[in-house]
Known about the structure:
Layout: E1 5-11, E2 15-19, E3 24-26, E4 32-34, E5 40-44, E6 48-54, H1 68-80, H2 85-88, E7 92-96, H3 102-107, E8 113-118, H4 120-133, E9 142-146, H5 176-185, E10 188-192, H6 198-213, E11 221-227, E12 231-233, E13 238-240, H7 242-252, E14 258-263, E15 280-287, H8 291-299
Parallel strand pairs: 7-8, 7-10, 8-9, 10-11
Antiparallel strand pairs: 1-6, 2-5, 3-4, 11-15, 12-13, 14-15
Helix pairs in contact: 6-7
Amino acid sequence: GMSAPLQSELHLPQTLEICMPPRASFDEDGDLVVDRAGKTLTVQLPPHVLAVQAEGTALADVGLQPWRASLLLLEWIVQCAGTDPATAAAQCVLELGCGIGLCSVVAGHVWPHVLASDLPHILAGATRPTVQLNTAGSAGRVHLCPLDWQAGCKGVQWCSDGPSCTDAASCLSWHQSEWDLLQAQCPLILAADVIYDEAITASFVSTVRELLAGSGRLRRTLLLALEQRVNFSRETLACSSKLYNHFCTLCLDNEEDFECHNIPVESVPQLLPYERGSFLQLWRIRAREKATEASSTKQE
């Protein structure tokens, strides 16, 4: 079970420079303005981020504490998010399995809207307290969106109050405005340390396939940070990475459905005090364009 919650603090650099693509800029409210010359956008980051976490968790509640892959993803957001014009100009990003919400909170300083998704009890017990602790600058941009990978996007929970909801910031349901952001203005999906159970891994890949393939003209990218965990197998009497190998079969080695590019971990400078080790990995994943789809796109 989960132990008593703790409050931790991560220190960050104070500014983040994002290289915007040509003909894109931001107005005073942080909204994207087109038909302008490109520029470098300087984003003010908080000197620290507070998080509510558990000291120890059972397997079902692993999202209630930060793991090394989530720290790597956070470092990528802070230092590398602005190097890709397609994602730097995004109006919205989605995080899958956001857990205690560290990456979503920091992402809220980079992008106008962040859809922080996880199971409802994780959002209520871990994500929402972290968002509330970090109200300056980003909390208003972080939307809490429950998403069960077993049900996929077709099983999302809609707010019963609809447009009249008066507490959308902390409501643990989807609103039409959030769904519209996901469908039309969300080119980037973030995820960290989500490979820890065979059934959950299969559901995660199924949801990713749905999200990457269902974006129409908006070709989405999944940025995934993971840790390859090695365990001793009684079956083979040797060390193996059974869950990682399972994920490779479903995704990384599945060249028919996915385009997977490994990003060297050393290309992301380390900012936070943790041991990276040799098993941390960072992947950029897209749905593979089918020949007929690519031909149709070019003809249009």
